[in-house]
## 1
Amino acid sequence: MTATNGNGTQPKSIRAPNPPLEDSVFKMFRMDGKTVIITGGSGGIGYEIARGLAEAGANIAIWYNSSKQASKLAATIAKDFNVKTAVYQVPVENHDAVESAVEKVIQDFGRLDVMIANAGIPTKAGGLDDKIEDWNRVRAIDFDGAYYCARAAGQVFRKQGYGNCIFTASMSGHAANVPQEQACYNACKAGVIHLTKSLAVEWAKWGGRVNCVSPGYIDTAISADCTFEMKEEWFSLTPLKRDADPRELKAIYLYLASDASTYTTGSDMVVDGGYTCR
Ligand code: NAP
């Protein structure tokens, strides 16, 4: 709609132009030819995100830290979906390593469209008797690492005038979920949620988008050591009375990564079986 001012002339608007859009909603979700970095890409959630995006046509750079399976998983994705994949060993708490790996991905793939900063550890830290070294390690990976990945990719995105970052936060950034005591993890994930909102405002100036996903309990290696009793307590506090298969997160990451979400930025997508709505 065109507005006019008092003397009938058309005032200069600050309104940004709408992006080109597909009419078909399924086409909006396509990722053909785009390059996506996924940190923690051979982990439980990361691998399923990678599969979801590859199925939609994206080429995938899997970042891992200590996994022995990363190359095999990347080869499986390439074969299953006929896309290009590659693996990079990148400790996300090392800023220089993150910056170099972003450059390497661009050399190898020719472009970068999406950064998914998903790596994280849940080590108990932040309690009165917990070790300071554990606090520092959890913060370095879960919070500093998330920022380093966004920063390195964001510098590329700003030059391009487009690009999009997705963090894996957690419902633990919303609630101090029990019975496990993990104050540092919870605080880092709350920090990631606010980092999402803050960067979304800054990046919007040049066309970048930033969002996060806050999963509830997802059945991956991260909770493999948790006891039966602990999990029973989780289920009793979750309205859907279960944890999730990581495949139940694929669609939300695809939405955020694709042009289906061109007007979504600064959002925190909570996928937690209802845990935090009680
Ligand atoms: P996971 O299977 O244990 O995956 C964790 C991933 O983080 C692994 O791929 C691991 O890579 C990577 N990682 C750990 N330390 C790293 C480091 N220093 N540098 C780079 N990568 C590192 O657990 P997940 O459930 O998929 O977790 C993925 C994300 O979801 C985490 O951020 C977690 O906090 C979040 N989350 C999980 C749940 C849940 O219930 N599962 C709920 C909410 C949020 P390597 O294996 O190569 O070392």
## 2
Amino acid sequence: MSFKTISVVGLGYIGLPTAAVFASRKVQVIGVDVNEHAVDTINRGDIHIVEPQLDIVVRAAVTEGYLKATTTAEPADAFLIAVPTPFKDNYQPDLAYIQSAANAIAPVLKKGDLVVLESTSPVGTTEQMAAWLAQARPDLTFPQTHGENSDIRVAHCPERVLPGHVIRELVENDRVIGGMTAKCSQYAVELYKICVHGECVITNARTAEMAKLTENSFRDVNIAFANELSIICDELDINVWELIALANRHPRVNILQPGPGVGGHCIAVDPWFIVSKTPELARLIHTARTVNDGKPGWVLEKVEQAISDIVHHSSKQLNDIQIACFGVAFKPNIDDLRESPALDISKALAAKYQGQVTIVEPNIKSLPDDLLAHDARLVDIESAVRDSDVLVMLVDHKQFKEASIALGEQQKLIDSKGIWL
Ligand code: SAJ
């Protein structure tokens, strides 16, 4: 099997880097996305998302003619589906993007093609995708009915790259490859070997789906443990960061770091896919989600307490109090504000204390509209430290860690990352 043309459906944070990395191996890559702006931007050799090094790889791939983007699917030897899988209001997974991707590629599928689902998905989604494809193309055979003799091969290969390190991790990370049959897995391994240096480990589709959900749930549960400890330690007047550092000296203990909550589009979402399938059984996983989702509210309560202390113990009026939020990104040293607990906390404060909130975020040049609407201002570290009554540390960016700050006696610090304590 040789893959002369590869199509990547969904040109977002995973799809575009994947398309560009395959194209950099001099394979013809057709990227498909419903977003015309994204398609036009990529065809100019530019990018519409932020990820280190991605611009260079995309520009080279487009200029050399190995990568092009389009809004309608074209024939290819392999199709990689990398579309979002959000959850609905009731935490049930929303597979609508996968269904439209399947419907988009179905008309151009031909005998011998491989279809790989990369989107993080609840267990059973790869089989569901194959069923949608089969429904749209009754003239072709699929693994669910024809096993190893099917016309089309189908596999799941979850993406596992860390935002901010995508280009390196796409190549270096091991890949879990879950084919619907052994042959499907073999074909998928051959495909990934074009650009992956890590090991391609074979399993079945359901296990591959669960592996990805398990990795992110592992992080979520362990961060929840750290977050719960931070709340307990606050009550008991113990520095949780010192405590964790001490406990982690034990050779078999490795506690993660507490923070203002869990952000991003993966760790706070994927555990729900397990909970939605097995609600009665996924008790710990569900509780961890609740603990982590409750942390921003707890930080806000601490800020309120600090404000109330100042009002009661000084001559300051409520309207005079200045609050500075340090960091709004969803994790350190990136400019990604999506699903950020730090942003949610800042927005809640800005909405309640209109005109009294400043934001320090070294990774962005201007504030998002919903902060500007509440008269929040973007300022530098020094002025925020100098001019604020309440300092709310939300993200442990390197600039904050490097800053040496000295607080006045009247100033209150709520440090959700424990770096200025
Ligand atoms: N966080 C903590 N304490 C910690 C570590 C993280 O509060 O000790 C918070 C971060 O501040 C952030 C959130 O958790 O808000 C998630 O950050 P992260 O860096 O742990 O992970 P993501 O969401 O950027 O990427 C994860 C990765 N998964 C794992 O590490 C198991 C990545 O490899 C996946 O590819 C990605 O999810 C994904 O796409 O699923």
## 3
Amino acid sequence: MTTYARQPVSFARGEGVWLWDTSGRRYLDALSGIAVCGLGHTHPAVTEAICKQAGTLIHTSNLFTIDVQAQLGEQLCAIANMDAVFFCNSGAEANEAAIKLARLFGHKKGTVEPAVIVMEGSFHGRTLATLTATGNPKLQQGFAPLMPGFIRAPYNDLSALEVIARERNDVVAVLMEPIIGEGGICLPGPQYIAAVRRLCDAQGWLLMLDEIQTGMGRTGRWFCYQHEQVLPDVVTLAKGLGNGFPIGACLARGAAATVFTPGTHGTTFGGNPLACRVSLAVLDAIEQEKLCPRAAELGTYLIAGLEEHLHQLKGVTEIRGKGLMVGIELEHPCGELVRGALAQGLVMNVTAGNVIRLLPPLVIERGEIDMIVNVVAHIVREFLQELKGS
Ligand code: PLP
């Protein structure tokens, strides 16, 4: 079905930060399959994990103990400071689990119709509940009736949440991205998430962070909340967790970790031995190759390079980001730049209409970042020149 307006290029092979199309042309990947392939393409440890586990055991179902799932759960809980995990197969499923968890948490304390606060500009997935949670009316168009039980609030606005706290007694949780990704790489103020944490504590709400795009080292720490010494109650992951092998996870801590009991939630494929073995290899490689500090350092380098070339240009509104999650906001819609970049051998993305989004693999080298900066600077300059002339 035509759910995507696709670019006219098909990739046949990948290695590290490089992709080759079916005609053998090489491209530098500054998108990582939308923040998925943090270790780059065909990382040897990932390939080996897939091959070995596929030759041993792929799937048994969650009716049985899965040792490799338990092992992955323990390791993830240790790095995320969480107590328990539900494994699934995608980001939307991880958020579905979080939303169900919040509702059950609410019902258990006597809230008849529990509500979850969600943010304007957010993206949480395409299933009905996660689409409802998503703060983008364009994506919701045509899918009414949406789900009840969500309250929309402006992002990065603590007082809006305080008003909701005063006016309503049905709220059980806040679900939000620590950096808005699809919505345009929007970073909150430095104290915002900590302040939301304090409000959640005061109100008895769960703080649920969607780290599907920001997690797994992307912003320079394992998880974005670790920049702020804030601990959420629930964290959702997917994307970089399997480096391209589908896996998602909903992690929880404290009271939130014991909300689900046998029969309250489930999945056939989630947490299968193959997906979990791959994810263990991903965790190991991120640790061994020190990719979190590397993402922090190279992200600073990338932003500095972009600022040097683009900062003074009229038509460039802002360059912003954290680690290797970087956005360049232009004054005008610039979706056509994706094709312009492809013509120059660069894979990148434009989101929210006017924000160039760069999400290169965390294994990228400085020289390759220089290439990204040069191509982006070139196509943005040309684009702005053409706009001026038109
Ligand atoms: N949450 C965030 C922050 C995302 O960026 C995405 C995907 O872009 C999702 C959820 C949905 O993940 P998936 O496409 O794996 O369902």
## 4
Amino acid sequence: MSLKSRTAVVTGSTSGIGLAIARAYAREGANVVINGFGDAADIEKERLGIEDEFGVKAFYSAADLSKADEAFNLVVEAEKTFGSVDILVNNAGVQFVSPVEEFPVEKWNLIIALNLSAAFHTIRAAVPGMKQRKFGRIINTASAHALVASPFKSAYVAAKHGIAGLTKTVALETATFGITANAIAPGYVWTPLVEKQIPDTAKARGLTEEQVKKDVLLAAQPTKEFVTVDEVAALALFLASDEARSITGTVIPVDGGWTAA
Ligand code: NAD
């Protein structure tokens, strides 16, 4: 399942799921564009580490994906640098937990911009080149919250349901051009995004942080275990492969059975 000669753009890949996906693609020989926030020295170390370990080219973009022009230009710059964007993973995302009537408007706007609209902007930038080359893999990191809701996550659940709709629509529009569009719907994966929401969830529900982990997060997941970033990356790798060419328009759960209930 080699990705040699492919270029992959993975948004939000300085941490968590995105980093695991970028590394999985590089391991299979793809050049990668990593993106996201964080300590500049740590990011440079990661970028060089990918190049050294896997013998590919890795480029870093600090684009703020909550801004339409920066999201669009991320793909334009990647095409200029590598000649094509063959695999686009829309993964950057943030969470905020609050009752709907107290939900800060700026948090709503940020989550819709980053978790939903950014994917529209990168996709509209990437699709013309993919159509021309008759190959493309668009993979959106959705969430179990693309399929079911949880209280206190109005913006996140709205954005993730939106990503599912965008994925299906793009799949239909691009199906005859060798392009696939799919969404991965992870359950709870142990990453900084989950870790950071524990104190606010504890506050919103009047629980201790330990109770949130056991009785709220893992209560939803029949396996009673967190999903790992490598398990999500393994699916993203398969969806990017030639063998996955007939899989399009799907929202695939990796959620330990959560959405089966
Ligand atoms: P994470 O916090 O480890 O990573 C988020 C990444 O997004 C980081 O690289 C961060 O720098 C980047 N980012 C944040 N704001 C950005 C911006 N404005 N522009 C560009 N990059 C930005 O979180 P994660 O858990 O790996 O989340 C990745 C994706 O997976 C998100 O879309 C999230 O909604 C989704 N997801 C996570 C879980 C989970 O349980 N962790 C479950 C389902 C879906």
